[in-house]
Amino acid sequence: MAATLQSCSFLLVTFIIIGMPAIVAAGTFQPSQWTLAHATFYGDETASATMGGACGYGNLFVNGYGTDTAALSSTLFNNGYACGTCYQIQCVQSSACNSNVPYTTVTATNLCPPNWSEASDNGGWCNPPRVHFDMSKPAFMKIAQSQAGIVPVMYRRVPCVRSEGLRFSLQGNGYWLLVYVMNVGGGGDIANMWVKGSGTRWISMSHNWGASYQAFATLAGQTLSFKVTSYTTKETIIAWNVAPANWGVGLTYSTNVNFN
Ligand SMILES: *[C@@H]1O[C@H](CO)[C@@H](O)[C@H](O)[C@H]1NC(C)=O
């Protein structure tokens, strides 16, 4: 359900320094350094166990994430602010590694909670302060043989490459708006968010859980616009008139603005 939008996107700025051409994209997220961690998998080949994860993306096929996903240990999860972030993961130092696959790319869609009944080096893989990826089984099987159970990996955070714009999934009611933000490009994460009804000023939304933000405001019957600030790059973009005045709970509205 596309809406009419106005983009407030940031310009690609190209600097040509004599003898050393360089392209600098304002607000663009840059990959992090490769770092050692470990990876396991959860669920089966269907990845059905990965649906309805802690980020609130619901059905990952419907919402564009598919099976290339992972649950993050709480050290990485950052109370849900890491929802939507993207990682390249490479299996290393194990005979179970698929040597023909350099790495696979996943989006964080879930939390791998600690289990203090298990030692951090023997089953409690997601216990803090461990940095751990509990991948969907299809994603894990791209880089390693599943019989291994757990493998060392090198990982780095990378920009999320998304076709199309931000998507806003609405929940709540006419007096309490709960919004799940999906298909976030660039850093993939969100620090702050505001909603503007056609009859209101910009209203700051508070972080609820996962990738959801809420406003306690009367917004029924108003066209909704959203302003979103990236957690990593601090870039802010506005998606105007995302949802029409007759917006409905349970519906997801697409836009044509995104981070890059
Ligand atoms: C935590 O670990 C214990 C011991 O292995 C296990 O019985 C239990 O099911 C685990 N809890 C969760 C929530 O997975």
TrEMBL record:
Quote the protein name from its UniProt record: Expansin
**Does the keyword Signal feature in the UniProt annotation?**
yes
Q: Using the record's annotation, list all stretches that form the Expansin-like EG45 domain.
A: 52-165
**Which Gene3D superfamilies does the annotation name?**
Expansin, cellulose-binding-like domain, RlpA-like domain
The record describes its membrane topology as: Peripheral membrane protein
**SMART domains documented for this protein:** DPBB_1
Which InterPro entries does the entry link to? Expan_Lol_pI, Expansin, Expansin/allergen_DPBB_dom, Expansin_CBD, Expansin_CBD_sf, RlpA-like_DPBB, RlpA-like_sf
Q: Which family does it belong to?
A: Belongs to the expansin family. Expansin A subfamily.
User: Native species of this protein?
Assistant: Clitoria ternatea
Q: Where is the Expansin-like CBD domain?
A: 175-255
Keyword set includes Ion transport: no
Taxonomy, superkingdom: Eukaryota
UniProt function note = Causes loosening and extension of plant cell walls by disrupting non-covalent bonding between cellulose microfibrils and matrix glucans. No enzymatic activity has been found.
> Biological process GO annotation list?
anatomical structure morphogenesis; plant-type cell wall organization
Alphabetized UniProt keyword annotations = Cell wall, Cell wall biogenesis/degradation, Membrane, Secreted, Signal
Signal peptide, first to last residue? 1-26
Q: Where in the cell is it found?
A: Secreted, Cell wall; Membrane
- GO CC field: extracellular region; membrane
